[in-house]
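I'll show a sample.
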Amino acid sequence: MTILGPILSLVFIVVVAKLLINKFYPHAVLLISGLLMMGVALVLGSSLPDLVKSTGLGGFDLFKLIKESFSSINAGVGLMIMSIGGFVAYTHKIGASNALVHLAMKPLHVLRSHPNLTAVFVIPIGQVLFICIPSAAGLSLLLMASIFPILLSLGVSRLSAASVITACTAFCVGPASAITASAASYAEMEAINYFIEEQLILVAPLNITLMVVYFFTNRYFDKKGAVEVKNSEFTKEVKVEVPMHYAIIPVLPLILLIVFSDLFSFFPHPIVLDTTTAMIISLFVAILFELIRVKKIKEVMQSLKVFWDGMGDIFKSVVTLIIAADIFAKGLISLGFVDGLVDLSIGAGFGFVGITIVLAVMIYLSSIMMGSGNAAFFAFGPLVPKIARDLGVSSASVLLPMNLAASMGRTVSPVSGIIIATAEIAGVSPIEIVKRNLIPLSAGLIVLLIAHFL
């Protein structure tokens, strides 16, 4: 079992990767492969991960693990992510997201005489927006509807504009991000603490790296001129139909989490908010804004349905993926993949630094192949606490590069929904966007790993 288990787990990983590349439903692939691995582990005489209460029969315990995974994840990180999804959907419905983007992009007009410089300044502004609007697809499409026409009018090429807009979602950071929420739970930290103490330190140099490399990369490709550009019907800026003070609504959860966190002592008695509570408070503030603006109680109450629908959409897409990935991770653990990986890395002299680099690069490549940063991270993230304990380091120190590498890989994937949708709206080829993203994001991955271990 010592050698056979890890070998079999590698076979499962290869098969799963092939299925995901071929567009098989990831939730089913991860769930079924996880159950199969645990079934094989039972046959080989290995034990399953601990249950709160066993059924008394190994075959039934496989399915009891799914039940307990549903219970634990839905009660914790799942509820948090669903509340985020509902709030994001509601802010989009009432136009608050549009107002925030419109306001944030105003400074770009100052750089109208320098098109390439204007384009790269979208990246840090977009990253700030991504922290407040943690939907990669939603923010990309919102930027395509608002800033893309502005960039074109300032003389930025279609491909340069599309590439920097996709780059705005290259780093999944902030307490409202699904990957952050998941990583923080694995690290046993509050999401806001993980964001401020771990993520922020790396985001600044990574954004600078992307800005510099994108500037030269896009300028090179624009001068080269060997790109295929299609006609696009997208020609004018979307209007903001709500008061500009609505821009505060998407930012409000972040403000509440920072002000009322245990990182600061603004009040004589400690007041600490969790992410879910901050989202719910912000939702009711948004409802109050709508009551004042619309003055139709029935209509505003009806709009709350958008919040529940948003929660449901996130449950069926993200939370269920986390549960399936949790079962997949338990299968790998049952077959001894983690123990084998740690033993192999230590035997090769890798240690903490080496194994963390291996995991980060593995997730980066997996994200490129799958077109999903969530699927890649959720598949391997649950393995980290055990790896960290075996190496004698904190889980956060291993998780952070994996967290960022997952979203960076998605930005370089030609099968990513964000790349495909952005290319379609811009009227350009997805492959051409990927070509422009590959150099900056690969440079970003190198800087990430260097900065993390300095």
Observations:
- The chain has 19 helices and no strands.
- Confidence is low (pLDDT under 50) at residues 226-236.
